[in-house]
Write a structure and sequence with these properties.
By secondary structure, the chain is α+β, with helices and mostly antiparallel strands. It is built from 16 helices and 7 strands.
Length: 335
């Protein structure tokens, strides 16, 4: 065999560099070694009674995912107009799947609607928007998503650190393997995409088997979504939104302000927003909304129930998509 010193040296350098790079990647993947890990461990021990070794062992299995950091920087709600956002959720396939899901789970959905006072089509629509009725519940391990965002996404580190803490509480209470749970890039889980804090606050055992399984059990997921809406103030039989005509001098400062509806319909009309539908209770609280639709600018008034949908996801695009999908599913279901 011929021996070339210069070439051998270059190969050695490449191998050394590769080994260092590999060790660096492994070190990054082990979140138990992250500079923020030990304060996190200490807080879990002092505030929630966890064993330090257990917390470290879970963090050691968590992996940093650059794809998660990339995804959270470009959510559809912030990058799309209504005309494009609507197309994502109001397609024939999702509507038909919603009707099928409703029929297959009619008993649980009807029970949830009665017990919690939430429109059945809204329950179905939320699950449809979030996961296509359980088909797309997320491909990331929740422990990876929450660790990545808690420790390596400074912009929202405080929020995701709290969610990571709640995740540990969740797996302890439910006796679950922390590496077995999958969800979205933000750590949302199950049919209804509950964050750990939402799971702890609103998840219910709706079929009475002593488990709160929002991952594999649609009945528990249905009850949990309905409970979420009831607890956030859903009004049975209440309106959600209505189209309006605007005058040339409508008050633009009121449009898309956010917050809970604070104007009455009478006040909204005096400010240039007149509902297309007649016979509405003029004392109802509303908030003016504006969307860029396929045929131009659309103006709406959102009622308290519209605001409740935004408690699930704060985007007004999301809330309108949920409501319009619910209406489409309901129309086809009762045919």
């Amino acid at each position: 065999m011929l021996y070339y010193p210069a070439l051998f040296k270059r190969i050695q350098n490449v191998m050394t560099f590769s080994a260092l790079l590999l060790s660096s990647v492994i070190a990054q993947a082990d979140y138990s070694k992250h500079e923020l890990a030990e304060p996190f461990v200490e807080s879990m021990v002092k505030e929630h009674g966890f064993q330090a070794d257990f917390v470290r062992s879970v963090l050691a299995k968590a992996e940093k995912k650059q794809s998660i950091l990339d995804a959270i920087s470009r959510p559809a709600e912030k990058t799309k107009e209504w005309k494009d956002y609507r197309k994502i959720f109001l397609d024939n396939q999702r509507i038909n799947q919603g009707v099928k899901f409703w029929k297959e789970n009619a008993q649980a959905i009807d029970k949830a609607a009665q017990e919690y006072g939430v429109s059945p089509e809204i329950i179905v629509s939320i699950i449809g928007v979030e996961t296509r009725y359980g088909r797309l519940a997320g491909r990331y391990r929740v422990v990876d998503a929450l660790s990545t965002l808690a420790f390596d996404y400074p912009k929202r580190s405080a929020f995701f650190t709290k969610e990571l803490k709640n995740f540990f509480i969740l797996i302890k209470e439910q006796e679950l393997d922390p590496t077995s749970l999958y969800g979205s890039y933000a750590g949302a889980m199950g049919y209804g995409q509950f964050m750990p804090s939402s799971f702890l606050a609103y998840a219910v055992d709706f079929d009475g088997d002593n488990k709160k399984d929002i991952w594999q059990n649609p009945t528990d997921a249905i009850g949990s979504v309905a409970n979420y809406f009831k607890r956030h103030g859903w009004q049975p039989e209440g309106p959600v939104a209505t189209r309006v005509r605007v005058t040339d001098n409508y008050d633009q400062k009121l449009v898309n302000q956010g917050g809970r509806p604070s104007l009455t319909i009478v006040e909204a009309k005096s400010l240039g927003f007149t509902p297309v539908v007649k016979g509405l209770d003029t004392s109802l609280a509303v908030m003016p909304l504006r969307y860029q639709g396929v045929h131009g600018t659309e103006f709406w008034l959102g009622f308290d129930n519209f605001y409740v949908i935004t408690r699930y996801n704060r985007s007004r695009l999301y809330a309108m998509a949920v409501w319009q999908l619910a209406e489409e599913i309901k129309e086809k279901y009762i045919q």
